[in-house]
UniProtKB/TrEMBL annotation:
Disordered: region residues: 69-96
Catalysed transformations (reactions): O-phospho-L-threonyl-[protein] + H2O = L-threonyl-[protein] + phosphate
Biological source species: Phytophthora lilii
Keyword Manganese recorded: yes
Family under the similarity heading: Belongs to the PPP phosphatase family.
Protein name from the UniProt record: Serine/threonine-protein phosphatase
Segments forming domain Serine/threonine specific protein phosphatases: 218-223
Length: 449
């Protein structure tokens, strides 16, 4: 059983770590108020902002060492090598994939039970602790069968970070359609930051168990024991259930989540980015993923790395993972027969951001992030013909996007949603406006604060 961070260290970390700044790196420094931290770091957290100066990058790297020494319980051992359990079965994905342990004590859950739980969760009503235990046991039984590079068929809607913003997730489903009518691929970061991490992750796991061939959930850097002890999910579980048991159930499930997915062998989807240790998808298929996210190495890089305007590999200001340039994404896509890398992990003010001459797209699906950033959110829809169009919200509009990349049209379309701060938690009819690239997107003009 994992050892929890001592309460005094947990409180100390919360007081000194910028709670809005994990997307730049976990920086340990002088205690500051939330507003001071936000004003100091917010501009650097946005894709397209000026990069940090060298001195600031060096300070960030020194700070992460201080964080690791404080955040890791002194008495805890290294994460157990769960993937090396002799009683293990082969995960999906071919003869070269790793063999994982079986999820123990699987519960038989009827379709009626799962449907009732989904209906309850869609109303933002949490399950009981015993129901969560049963759901997580079944989820591990389902997820252990999936590959580290999970194949996904189109049509599918690809989503970025959600971060416990449950009512915005409901708006996402309203725009994109509800499962199983719409197939979904979520690229991680379901918990922390938002007020409803428990309800959000429970609903997504329940949808995965109920519609295992139509809903896919990947692991993000926040699907981690240490990160969730600092950024909200652990505290929320204690507050809502009175014990850390639900937190334990879900963090055990996080170890089983696939690391990446590939849509029709063309679109490579993951939370973070590439790694200098990884040249091929087959290398990823060989990982022992059933463990806590390491502090470094290839598995860590997939969840923490970011694209960058500079060529080659660079030191990440986050203190984990790397930055990678267009030459790196070009080489990786060519070596693996890919047309696109779709990833999340970074706040982008317009909800999505193209980089590396359309080799890479960043998708962020948590509008008005932390209930104050004022950013838009986006989802990416891939249709049956691997064509991409854009459609309005209140008046259905289909526009063919004539953007050429490598002598062919990129195969997806995007929906953007703009959510302003209000005191209301309810969906509203959106107005369609023209995006600066000349494509009509659906923008929601009322939302959650």
């Amino acid at each position: 059983m994992e050892q929890l961070m001592p309460q005094d260290e947990h409180n100390h970390l919360i007081s000194v770590i910028p709670r809005t700044n994990l997307d730049l790196g976990v920086i340990v420094g002088e205690p500051l108020s939330f507003d001071d931290l936000f004003e100091r770091y917010a501009s650097d957290r946005v894709v397209g902002a000026s990069p940090w100066e060298t001195q600031e990058r060096e300070k960030a790297l020194l700070a992460i060492d201080a964080h690791n020494s404080r955040a890791t319980p002194k008495a805890s051992a290294a994460p157990p090598a769960i993937g090396r359990n002799p009683d293990r079965i082969r995960s999906g994905g071919g003869a070269d994939t790793v063999r994982f342990p079986r999820a123990k004590m699987p519960f038989e859950l009827s379709i009626d039970t799962l449907d009732a739980w989904c209906e309850k969760l869609l109303g933002c009503n949490p399950l009981t602790e015993n129901e969560v235990m049963q759901l997580c046991a079944k989820a591990k039984e389902v997820l252990v069968q999936e590959s580290n590079v999970q194949p996904v068929r189109c049509p599918v809607t690809v989503c970025g970070d959600v971060h416990g913003q449950f009512h915005d997730l409901m708006e996402l489903f309203r725009i994109g359609g509800h499962a199983p009518d719409t197939n979904y691929l979520f690229m991680g970061d379901y918990v922390d930051r938002g007020y409803y991490s428990v309800e959000t992750v429970t609903l997504l796991v329940c949808l995965k168990v109920r519609y295992k061939d139509r809903v896919f959930i990947l692991r993000g850097n926040h699907e981690s024991r240490q990160i969730t002890q600092v950024y909200g999910f652990y505290d929320e579980c204690l507050r809502k259930y009175g014990s850390p048991n639900v937190w334990r159930y879900f963090t055990d499930v996080f170890d089983y989540l696939p690391l990446t997915a590939v849509v029709e062998n063309q679109i490579f989807c993951l939370h973070g980015g590439l790694s200098p240790s990884i040249d091929t998808l087959d290398y990823i298929r060989g990982f022992d993923r059933l463990q806590e996210v390491p502090h470094e190495g290839a598995m860590c890089d997939l969840l923490w790395s970011d694209p960058d305007d500079r060529s080659g590999w660079g030191i990440s200001p986050r203190g984990a993972g790397y930055t990678f340039g267009q030459d790196i994404s070009d080489q990786f896509n060519h070596a693996n027969g890919l047309t696109l890398i779709a990833r999340a992990h970074q706040l982008v003010m317009e909800g999505y951001n193209w980089s590396h001459k359309c080799n890479v797209v960043t998708i962020f699906s948590a509008p008005n992030y932390c209930y104050r950033c004022g950013n838009e959110a986006a989802i990416m829809e891939v249709d049956e013909q691997m064509q991409y169009t854009l459609q309005g919200d209140d008046n259905f509009t289909s526009v063919r996007l004539n953007l050429n990349y490598a002598c062919h049209v990129l195969p997806f379309h995007l929906l953007g949603t703009l959510l302003h701060r209000t005191q209301h938690i309810r969906p509203h009819e959106g107005n369609t406006r023209k995006h600066k690239v000349g494509i009509k997107l659906a923008f929601i003009t009322d939302g959650v604060y």
